[in-house]
């Protein structure tokens, strides 16, 4: 499909109005951006699954989407600003087609100016102080509120916003001096980050507004975003093996990857600051103080076996401390944290000790290029899961859970191949293109890697490929689905390399991720909008309109097509009533499950709250009530750790952040524990049926 589209549009590569190739001042459009926008419009208006002509009607949608992406809470622009942009509302189509992107850049420059003004005003409020006895409030959600009519109304919003920031820190026990210093730094950092925006950032925001105005899962990937996507799919990169973070104008090492060049050297530590980087010994040193983390990453990554020189300010040194120079050889870094993992949970059931294997899969990754080259050991989700199943079988597990919570998808091919690990042969998913043609994707390799009791865990964050697999295994009667209804993304995207289209010799135009088809369940239903409904449902604080496909204004509709020809492997519906009764009985008695239900109810109650009180006494009472509940459950120490300290990301010390993350990772997974019990019930209830079946002589593959 991709090659056909590229071939069709090669002749259009240079038909757009070109801009002069000359050095461009900051935050102005470039000729390459004009070309990328024009090429994207050719694809989007002709070959998108829900293709729309680029006209005045679509221009209005792009305009609204662009403003929403810049100012989602409507606190920077005023109605006066919006009225001033009125002519642009129906001219953005012309801007793209004629290669003149000055209009969207004008809007962004106004946004940047307003940001600086609002934050300067916020900073001024810190010197004036606040009266916390006044009965006033701040709106929790302004996404659909009217724009402030003028600067005076915008300033009043910001006064309340700053007042809330101050009150949160005050309730956390901070003194006035410390509060003022924290907020001054917070607002200064916001302005500094805004000042670091580049022309490519503006263009990507605008292009994503255009793409998203057509359909939610179509997007433009600038060169940096495209590289990140490739890394996420192949789970590897070439670099030094360090996770970096911007902290106080320094590029700081947040984590060292075990086995990577940085960790192996023994010369770097968490908290060290990289203040310069050179491409080899004797090469000029690029200054990284005040740089963005993506700029630093671009300089540090490179070709395998090449040298990179780092200028390091050690973690325990002040700004004027002694630097050290470290030379590292770049190597391939495997991102194991994002790969499939296994564990074993034990369930005591009627005197039997059952072992349930758990495979956690964060994404449906696949090294596309490695597979294309025929690499013997290319990385993919299905290969990793097949290997883990083999290891769990050797450990004699009685049942298996595939945990797809918060798995947003990935490779469609991997979804099909991974489904094939749990069925014999047969259709997995149906695809319908824009012309209405339906194609069935099937698993054609006989035998299953695992044919025993199986459950799949899903939640609102399970989308796309996760929904394909979960729906197929549910339709086959092959697995119990446990958790929350899934996201509801039932569309297929392809990547179009705009540099390939334009025959560009260097990467400069980026890629277009475009929706080309809709996928359907083998029973003819769709996961689009509807998502996948679990067989055993856990309480959820999220509704589909808040976190799901139905929350998008322009999501594709849910439709039905004829079912594919398939034969269910078994019928789990017969045991569902018993499974549900046992689960409900545990939920009524288990302390952790009762507390979870209480938390969900409290979250749903807070979600309906429209405004946040700015009266200190009222907020203090609310805080004391929350903390009393925490103390009752987990003790004073846990309550203090989980309470609101009023700080935002990056404002805590690096050690405090890492300790907090470690504590969260170490918390008991109540839902997984209950899912393990449900699988234990499944094993027990299916045992008589399995004894009557053909036993364990079914063919096994992989």
Explain what you see:
The structure is a single chain. The chain has 702 residues and is of the alpha+beta class. 42% of the residues lie in helices and 17% in strands. The protein contains 23 helices and 21 strands. Strand 6 and strand 7 (286-287) form a beta hairpin. The longest helix is centred in the N-terminal third of the chain and has 27 residues, at 102-128. The radius of gyration is 27 Å and the shape is globular. The protein starts with a helix and ends in a 10-residue tail after the last helix. Residues 1-25 and 694-702 have low confidence and may be disordered.
> What Rg is obtained from the alpha carbons, in whole angstroms?
27 Å
Specify the number of helices: 23
Shape category: globular
- Topology, number of strands: 21
The average pLDDT score comes to: 89
Low-confidence stretches: 1-25, 694-702
Largest sheet: 6 strands, antiparallel
Structural class: alpha+beta
Main features:
six-stranded mixed sheet; 702 residues; alpha+beta; disordered N terminus; six-stranded antiparallel sheet; 23 helices
Spell out the blueprint of helices and strands.
Blueprint lengths: L1 H8 L21 H16 L9 H15 L8 H6 L7 H6 L4 H27 L8 E3 L11 H21 L4 H20 L3 H16 L4 E3 L1 H12 L1 E4 L2 E6 L2 E7 L4 H5 L7 E6 L7 E2 L5 H8 L6 E7 L10 E6 L1 E4 L6 E9 L2 E9 L7 H6 L7 H14 L4 E5 L8 H8 L6 E8 L4 E6 L10 E5 L6 H11 L4 E4 L7 E7 H5 L8 E10 L15 E2 L38 H14 L1 H17 L3 E3 L2 H19 L1 H7 L11 H12 L4 H23 L10
Parallel strand pairs: 12-13, 13-16, 16-17, 17-20
Antiparallel strand pairs: 1-21, 2-19, 3-10, 4-5, 5-6, 6-7, 6-8, 8-9, 11-12, 14-15, 14-19, 18-19
Helix pairs in contact: 3-9, 6-7, 6-8, 7-8, 14-15, 15-16, 18-19, 18-23, 20-21
